[in-house]
Amino acid sequence: MALITDGPPSNIEFLAGLDSQLHNVASTEAIDVRRKLELAHEEIGLDLDALLKRTDFAEHLMWVAAKPRLKAVVVTTALKLWHAYRTLELVYSDAYNSQLNDRYQGKRDQFHQMAISYRERLIDAGAGMASIPVPRAMTPALATVAGSLPDNIYYVTAAWVNRVSEEGASATTAAITTSSSSFSAQIAPAPANAVGWNVYVGLDPDSMTLQNSSPLEVGVAWVQPVWISATGRKPGYGQAPNYVQPLPRLIQRG
Question: Going by fewer Cβ within 10 Å, which terminus of the chain is more open, N or C?
Answer without folding.
Answer: C
